[in-house]
Every structure is written in C-alpha cells, then in structure tokens.
Design goal:
Layout (H helix, E strand, L loop, with lengths): L5 E7 L5 E8 L3 E3 L6 E8 L26 E8 L2 H4 L4 H8 L18 E9 L1 E5 L4 E5 L3 E5 L4 E3 L6 E12 L8 E3 L3
C-alpha cells in the first residue's frame, strides 16, 4: 500500500460556525489487484450543485472509478513502476474499476474510458498517459484535463507516481466515432 494521504474536511457545528470535521489519514484506500495501484477515495458528491450542508463522511463508501451521474469524485492514485508489477488483465481491471468492457483491440491492457471530465495533477514521480495512437509524458507538477478519452497509465520509471484526480460526471453528446465528453450541466 502507498503512503497514507492526510485528509482535512471542514463543515459547520450546531451553531453554524466553521469547524474541522475530519483530520487524519484517509481511510478508504484500496489496492487494485489487477493493476497494482492504490486508489484513495478522498470525497465524492452525488449531485450538482453539490450539497455542502452535511457532516457525513462522503468517502465512506464503495465506488468504482467513474463518478455517479451528476456527481464528482476526488481521489489520489499511486501508480507503482510497471516493472514491479507485471502484466495487466484488461477484463479483471475493468471489473475492479466498475467500468463496462471497452474495445477488444486495445493498445495497452490498462486502457479504459469514463464518462467524465478528469482533472489530474501529478504530485510526485513521472508517468506516461497512452491514448489510442499517441502518448504524453507527465512529470511532477504537470496538470491534465481529460475529456472522456480512451487511455491507460504506464509508469515506466523506477519510482512510484502519485496523481490527484477530480472526476466530474459528463455526458456523450456526439456519435461513438467522435466521442466527446462534456460537463454535466444537463
């Protein structure tokens, strides 16, 4: 398992004053056996606009990779070096992530797609994001905006790579040939 992520969550007391509700290691960290990565759910919403009045821990639940319809997910993912893990079973990975089966002729066994806008910030390390016919190398401090694209992550380095992700529910507005994911303003 990866290094724990400290999570601080604020809210309101019974008098309406701003307070810290949670301060400690995020408890919802999952080792994904199919890929060897560790995914830590920090927070999620099930609606937009988000309800900001509650005090419940919105990360105390099971959820796949994609956000719920009209919702969002905030997580940190730790990717081990590929050389430390080995081959990936695409079908097992998709089941574990809660994603429907994709194309059978994928470029990389970890290829997947979510119906979401994904904001990603590389916190530490380096990683390659593979697309259908290209790839981009990301380093510490780089940011990525991903619009529902088919992709895979490949850590070809020797150190773990940690990325913070915010996924916001989206919808497909075009044909399967030109899939584009747009924000969930609908």
């Amino acid at each position: 398992m990866a290094q724990p992520t400290r999570r601080v969550v604020t809210g309101h007391d019974v008098n309406g004053r701003a307070v810290v509700l949670i301060d400690g290691a995020a408890p919802n960290a999952k080792l994904r056996k199919a890929t060897g990565l560790t995914s830590t759910l920090l927070w999620m919403t099930e609606e937009s606009p988000a309800d900001v009045s509650g005090n419940a821990d919105r990360a105390a639940r099971e959820i796949g990779v994609a956000p719920p319809p009209r919702g969002s997910v905030f997580r940190v993912v730790d990717f081990p070096p590929a050389a430390d893990f080995g081959a990936v079973d695409n079908a097992a990975m998709l089941r574990e992530m809660g994603i429907e089966a994709g194309q059978s002729d994928v470029r990389h066994a970890a290829m997947h797609r979510t119906k979401s806008i994904d904001y990603a910030v590389v916190i530490s390390g380096e990683i390659d994001m593979l697309l259908d016919d290209s790839e981009v190398h990301l380093r510490t401090g780089d940011v990525l905006v991903q619009q529902g694209t088919n992709h895979a992550w490949a850590n070809r380095g020797k150190e773990n790579c940690r990325i913070a992700f915010v996924l916001i529910s989206g919808i497909w507005k075009s044909s399967p040939r030109t899939l584009r994911c747009l924000g969930s303003a609908v």
